[in-house]
Predict the structure.
Amino acid sequence: MTCTPVPTVIISKMRAVLIKDGQGPIENLYIGETDKPVPTKGQVLVKIVAFGINSMDHYQRQGSYPAPLGASSILGVEFSGRVTELGEGVTRWAVGDEVFGLVGGGAYAEFVNCDEGLLLKKPGHLSWVEAASIPENYITAYQALVKYGEVKKGDHVLVHAGASGVGIAAIQMARALGATTVTATASTTAKLDWLRSIPNGATHTVNYKTEDFAAEVKKTTSGKGVDVVIDFVGQSHWAKNVESLAIDGRMTILATLSGSEVPAVNLGPILYKRLRIQGSTLRSRSLQYQTELIS
């Protein structure tokens, strides 16, 4: 009896969430077929189980936030899944490993290429969805709060957009690192109540639409002010952020949701309070920077 070998089937296509005409309204999104990525040196091919949705994805779809040079034009920067193929020289991972990670684009798909240094082992106690929601949010929060904000035990921290993904991550991280107070701002009572109720949640909350957050943090810190501000809002919060900061305070600006131009700036408080103000992005940073941040 002669057995004929069964030929190996190489799948070169995959499904992904694509954008009709390359950009446009949400109605332009559709599930279509595209080329399956092939891992190159130092890369790992992951079969995606879940991916995260971030505001940058919406801006990219609308045409106002292009993917970094060399990144996939497919939406999505964070995901969880199983390793299915290894590129040349990969030593940290094996086929079948359960991972979650960060990419410059490409996560809204069945498969994604990821540099081996931007992957993390998925803990067994996390669901696939929970793991996929971590990389962009918590790494951004770590960069803002720890690398630039230099938060330490006993600090007072103010986090704007507290109910956002990065805001929640920053609140919980600050509490875990020993901050004495963590004040979060949001626009509704429901959000503020929830932020105080979650594990390692905010110690204090302020409705920025109806309350003066600079005055409130002065009360909670006995007049000192906060050591660290994490801001996403920009123009409308600028003056009160500077007012909120203590001597030697640090502010990290992650976005400018209310606008990027401040009509008038008093440089005096920045000088006499010795403030440090740092702008921060993550997606546009080099592979080496992102790898070192994760490691």
The mean pLDDT is 94.
